[in-house]
Amino acid sequence: MIVIDPPAVPRYGRLWAHLASDTSYDELHEFARRLGVPERGFDRDHYDVPAELWERAVASGAVPISSRELVLLLRSAGLRRPKPGHTSGSTPD
Fold first, then answer.
1. pTM of this prediction?
2. Dihedral angle of Cα 32, 37, 43, 46, to the nearest 10 degrees
3. What is the rounded radius of gyration, in angstroms, for the C-alpha atoms of the chain?
4. Does residue 37 contact residue 24 with C-beta atoms inside 8 Å?
C-alpha cells in the first residue's frame, strides 16, 4: 500500500508531504515514477512530494494518513531508515 501524509513541512518556499510504502521500496519507486516525482525526492525511506502533487497522488491510489501513522507504518513494515545519529524514539520528520 502506498501512503501519503498531509503537506505540512515547509522547505524551499513550498509545503511538502511524505510518500511511502508499507510493502517495498520497489513499489514506492514505481509509484513515484508514475506520479512524476524525480529520484532526487527519495530520502532514505520516503519521497518528499510537493503539495501541488498531493491530490494527484491520492487520486492515483495513495492513502492519506497522518505523519505519525506514516512513521509507525514504516517501522512496523521494517522499512524505516532513521537519519544517522537518531534513535528509534526520535520524532517523525
1. 0.85
2. -30
3. 12
4. no
